[in-house]
Amino acid sequence: MSGLRAAAPEAGSGDGALMDALFQAARRITESFSRDLAPQGLSFAAMRALQGVAHEGPRGLSQSALAARLRVSPASVTRLVDELSMHRLVERRQHVHDRRTKMVAITDRGRDVLGQAQQRLARLETDFAATRGRMSLQQLVEALDGIGGAR
Fold first, then answer.
1. Which domains are assigned to the chain?
2. What is the DSSP letter of 62?
3. Which long-range contacts (CB under 8 A, 24 or more apart) does 142-146 make?
């Protein structure tokens, strides 16, 4: 094409252009992020799980609590924790009062890798904000939260 862009879709037109653009952007960002941090054993989903575990501090949290926090199934959390554990980013521990419950806690290595991941995310956000001109990152986050419901 000669540099012409297609017209923006009408709001509510039902052609799916907005949703397609959002899903494609999310896929590209997730793939880029995952590719950059794969050597540390961290996918985007695993990074989110690691953030959730780190948020609880040294005592950690149960896998079921992590599943609720991430809004994913317990089976998905089990796979994520297996992945994180294999790379020594988290460790499973027995719950102090309930032997049936496994707690997940971040390791020192996990904190280091999470710091690297957060730096990468900050660079991605800075790069994105630089290309968007007047729309602030905060405005975009608020708009997207409004589409899919609050996080």
1. 25-144 (1.10.10.10)
2. E
3. 144/22
What b/e sequence results for 61-96 when a residue is b if at least 16 CB atoms lie within 10 Å of its CB, and e otherwise? bbbebbbebbebeeeebeebbebbbebebbbeeeee
Which CA distances in Å does 35 have to 62, 102, 107, 126, 128? 28, 30, 22, 18, 18
Q: Measured between alpha carbons, how far is 107 from 88 in angstroms, rounded to an integer?
A: 7
* Residue spans of the chain under pLDDT 50: 1-5, 151
Q: How far apart are CA 88 and CA 120, in angstroms?
A: 20
Evaluate whether 27 touches 13 at the Cβ level (below 8 Å): no
Angle at CA of residue 81, ends 78 and 86, nearest 5°: 125
Q: Is 100 helix (H, G, I), strand (E, B) or coil?
A: coil
- For the chain, list the strands marked E by DSSP: 61-62, 90-94, 102-106
Give Cα separations from 151 to 24, 59, 141, 146 (angstroms): 20, 24, 10, 9
